[in-house]
């Protein structure tokens, strides 16, 4: 509307004015006869109305023939402001529509859920100690075998024989570990699926069981390889230097296992890089971050996500596609914010606090995944503990067995999909397979975006990054959340009731 | 929800693996006794499950103790995507709520409005030619005075006497110009306010009249100073070199005036920097840009802004403050988009096309105002034609008269506020004073943000830029639009009718 406006703020103007005098010497094309008009010294004219505002040819800075493109940093600031304002508006709209939805007393959970959750939380780690006892027996037998070998003074080539005979023993140990580990996961899953109604308590129990299960697997696999390395000391294979501080049978102690139990990692190592002291202020700050982010997430879910999800139920039930799309896009912002807050709370705040308390030196729980130029780069960087586990205990051994790296990667995603389905499907009492499919779909996405990551120049990386964000925060998260939420309400009656 | 995931995409993994072997030589604190375990050559281990994932102390990249802050470029991409998605959602929501609101036949304007607009469009430039006749008479008299002076062979000190006597003549000329210029503006304003109902036709007529009025003022002031410079050739004052191609009385021709009439500037110069040819393809592209942006603006206004403004009417009438705030925030996005499109259409596309046709060399109609570190910088950069006028014909002469630069700037904004009020208040038939106040409020804003502009480092500039954007696109534009829209409907009955 106001297409016309004006001008200038301060004494800076005068210097601009003086500059114009200087540049007015630049000659220009003209069409009149030239007669000099008085002296032309570069002094300030008394006649202010004659200054040459247009003294030389110039281009508009947005034109293609402009010498250098202008900076667009101001528009970045504008984007941040517009995002804040748009979301602030939605906050106001939400408040006018629903009022305050936060209600601490309204949370209802059955007492049975809490008790079962607490029992599971106490029982699951016991399996770690069963794994310790299995390893203790295995180490005892290995030490015996080495003692016998030393006494009989066998030649190196016979040590291969020893290792072979030991392989049959490994089968027994492997079975023991498998039964122990699977039991911990299976019991938890059955209890959560059958007896814990509250989805949050169920999810926490299931996450805990999966973490312990992965730890047991890592403990068993690592100790097997350490044992084999001890039995074949002549092999070309080497162990990391780090481990020399605590060679194989010495690491099978309760203290060593307890450290692994609490250490912020899923990968067992006899020795970890350690820090020399605990900065309690650091811990306090991280805990405070984690708590405030948790409150924020709870608030955002209850006030913004919940009414949105409830609104969507009937749209999904009636398969009204434009409405579902609209709900999905509205949900994507809140699910993205919640996810980012959750990521920071867990991977930055909680894991750093835990690492500080455990004096665990390696804090690289993630790297800058938000810049991922491809979907594959995202999965390699956002969750380092799980990435380390998958790489060391699944991908790397499969490649060593002769699998192609692509096949091994694909299998990692299939395995990860199974764990995701367990994690989401069991506590929501709906094994839909959506979480599994969501993970498996990553495989083609990774191969599609792989060339973008390796492309020269910035545009390929930006495109890859955009594909990653869209697939991640538009299609992935909110769609899965919507589907499981719908399935939950279809099963427990909200949809059919109304 | 999905707090756990996994890993890796391609053969790149193997190289990461190899790297870990190398870095595992970094020594770490440990607590066990050290016994070497076989050879430790950096070859690939057969035992894949023992690789040291955690081989050295590392920090999380978002921690303060991290060596270098990570790049956040990915979040910029995310912001763009979220903005697009959020607005796409609003598009879907708008469509579901209102359907298609675009209707070409529904536009009703009175025939009288069109006829009056056309008459005004034809008559207003005539005043430019009246100004030419006034200047022709003045130049004739000046040439006579110089001729007489030459014949009488007066000494230089007497030429001051000549100029003084001429000053009384200037008073007559000034009165003639003032009556002529004011008449053009006053007649247009009265006709628009009293007889043109359609606000768009009224606005176009008013803009045209103000542009011609400013051109007449510039023509009169510039020629007065050129004439004085001719009468006092011995003064220390100098004229820009550029003007030597067409010295004073030679520039008072119909051709010279006609060029100024159509040139994309409000500042009269006897000579302008020129280009040597017209690139018609360039013109065609700019015209196409301008047309498509106009269609876009019309579409955006009719489909998105109009229902929003209509929804707000009753909220304003009932003074429901949270609702007004919510409407204002929703309106700010669409008004910002419309404004940006309008800016580009006028200052980049239309003015560049006109300049190309007129072979006008100086295309700097704006500079990168979007990066403005202060409100003052914005007003100096976004509208160069008006800025040049205000600087040359108001600010600079006032400073030469001894005004402080702050007082001169303030007066410029008061003057600009009057023009704005004329521009908005007259076509909407509501002289509310909001446009005037909007401009005058810029004065304190400029002084508040001036220190930010001069601050060392980037944070002051970013803060200044954010203050500029918020004041500009959140408070300024949409609030003014809302108020004039409300006043219009209060006067013409939409509010009282319902």
UniProtKB/TrEMBL annotation, chains A, B:
A Pfam family annotated for this UniProt entry: MBOAT
Annotated localization: Endoplasmic reticulum membrane
Feature: compositional bias, Polar residues: 26-36
Residue stretches spanning the membrane: 73-92, 113-134, 174-196, 287-306, 336-355, 398-419, 431-450, 462-487
Pathway where it operates: Lipid metabolism
Top-rank lineage group of the source organism: Eukaryota
Key words, A-Z: Acyltransferase, Endoplasmic reticulum, Membrane, Transferase, Transmembrane, Transmembrane helix
Region annotation (Disordered) ranges: 26-46
tRNA processing in keyword set: no
Membrane topology: Multi-pass membrane protein
Similarity section: Belongs to the membrane-bound acyltransferase family. Sterol o-acyltransferase subfamily.
Job description of the protein: Sterol O-acyltransferase that catalyzes the formation of stery esters.
Protein's name in the database: O-acyltransferase
Organism: Lepraria finkii
């Amino acid at each position: 509307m106001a297409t016309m406006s004006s001008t200038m703020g301060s004494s800076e103007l005068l210097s601009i004015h003086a500059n114009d005098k200087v540049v007015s010497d630049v000659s220009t094309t003209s069409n009149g006869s030239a007669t000099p008009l008085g002296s032309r010294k570069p002094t300030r004219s008394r006649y202010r109305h004659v200054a040459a505002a247009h003294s030389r040819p110039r281009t508009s800075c947005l034109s293609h023939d402009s010498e250098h493109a202008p900076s667009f940093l101001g528009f970045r600031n504008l984007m941040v402001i517009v995002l804040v304002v748009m979301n602030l508006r939605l906050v106001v709209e939400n408040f006018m529509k629903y009022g305050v939805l936060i209600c601490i007393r309204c949370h209802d959970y059955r007492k049975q859920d809490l008790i079962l959750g607490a029992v599971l939380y106490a029982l699951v780690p016991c399996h770690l100690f069963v794994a310790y006892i299995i390893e203790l027996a295995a180490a005892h037998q290995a030490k015996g075998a080495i003692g016998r070998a030393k006494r009989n003074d066998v030649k190196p080539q016979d040590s291969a024989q020893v290792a072979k005979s030991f392989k049959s023993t490994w089968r027994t140990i492997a079975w023991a570990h498998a039964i122990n580990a699977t039991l911990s996961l299976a019991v938890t899953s059955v209890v959560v699926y059958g007896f814990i109604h509250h989805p949050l308590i169920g999810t926490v129990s299931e996450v805990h069981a999966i973490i312990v299960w992965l730890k047991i697997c890592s403990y068993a696999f690592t100790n097997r390889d350490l044992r084999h390395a001890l039995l074949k000391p002549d092999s070309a294979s080497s162990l990391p230097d780090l481990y020399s501080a605590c060679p194989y049978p010495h690491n099978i102690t309760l203290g060593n296992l307890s450290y692994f139990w609490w250490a912020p990692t899923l990968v067992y190592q006899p020795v970890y890089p350690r820090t020399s002291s605990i900065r309690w202020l650091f811990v306090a700050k991280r805990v405070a971050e984690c708590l405030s982010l948790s409150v924020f997430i709870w608030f955002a879910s209850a006030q913004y996500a919940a009414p949105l999800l409830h609104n969507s139920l009937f749209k999904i039930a009636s398969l009204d596609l434009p409405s579902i799309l609209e709900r999905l896009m509205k949900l994507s912002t809140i699910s993205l914010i919640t996810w980012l807050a959750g990521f920071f709370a867990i991977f930055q705040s909680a894991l750093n606090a835990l690492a500080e308390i455990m004096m665990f030196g390696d804090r690289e729980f993630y790297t800058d995944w938000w810049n991922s130029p491809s979907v594959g780069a995202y999965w390699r960087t956002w969750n380092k503990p799980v990435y380390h586990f998958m790489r060391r205990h699944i991908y790397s051994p499969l490649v060593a067995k002769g699998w192609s790296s692509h096949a091994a990667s694909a299998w990692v995603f299939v395995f990860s999909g199974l764990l995701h389905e367990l994690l989401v499907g069991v506590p929501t009492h709906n094994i839909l397979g959506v979480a599994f499919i969501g993970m498996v779909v990553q495989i083609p996405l990774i191969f599609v975006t792989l060339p973008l990551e390796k492309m020269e120049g910035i545009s390929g990386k930006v495109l890859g990054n955009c594909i990653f964000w869209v697939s991640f925060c538009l299609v992935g998260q909110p769609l899965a959340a919507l589907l499981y939420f719908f399935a939950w309400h279809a099963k427990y009656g909200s949809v059919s009731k109304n």
